């Protein structure tokens, strides 16, 4: 019996130390978000986001689950350039449609195993997007991004250096607030949830929320927030506080759109690294119409 126990302990230790996701993540703790993201930080003054068009029609580019480090960086660089080429064409197309692209949103899993090198390479990708297109990239944290205690590198490398934040974009018709929330553990945690409620209740703007884990994912429950009470709490807060759109990733090959009682829409996006998918989301503030173009680049 002692021999079997010793073998099991040796196996677990060997697995943990060889695992690319880190020892701490093998003994997964779902309360880490309490340490990372207790408050939704208002970064409106810091990011100085451009005003939306006065007519209220705009679009944003969306990518998710980039997983930098899953492939050799030379190959990733090829995909990155293909994406930027695609993005330039979509910018011109949406400008002609009257829905100019405002910025790029990345919905988490920026890296594959949370290493400092992978974070730096993702940061280079984001900076290259801005250099070639003039569009800022706003990101949120995913489950892969906290592997190997990688959250420290997230804060160091990923603009605007917060994991739970919001900012405002002004428009003559109605201002829009963008919320980027930390669900990297598959949970928001009580402190962040309370902060979300407080911030949204004091924010009269139309709201768009970005996070990694879906709420519903079209019924693919394995990929969603697992705490039913937490999901119900969020649905209540969103429905009462003018949230129009919730965007999430994490599902990789699942693309879904779901309307919650005509209050707001959840859109789940496919992985950029697996199928090289990207999207443009267009919104008309005056009519409330929402359009989504999903393409392979």
Report on this structure.
This protein is an alpha/beta fold. It is built from nine helices and twelve strands. The strands form two sheets. A seven-stranded mixed β-sheet has the order 1-5-6-7-8-10-9. Strands 4-3-2-11-12 form a five-stranded mixed β-sheet. Helix 5 packs parallel to helix 6 and helix 8 runs parallel beside helix 9. The chain is globular and about 45 Å long. It starts with a helix and ends with a strand.
List the helices and strands and how they pair.
Elements: H1 2-18, H2 23-26, H3 33-36, E1 41-42, H4 44-47, E2 57-63, H5 73-97, E3 101-106, H6 116-133, E4 137-139, H7 151-157, E5 165-169, E6 176-180, H8 190-201, E7 206-210, H9 228-240, E8 243-248, E9 256-260, E10 264-268, E11 277-284, E12 290-296
Helix pairs in contact: 5-6, 8-9
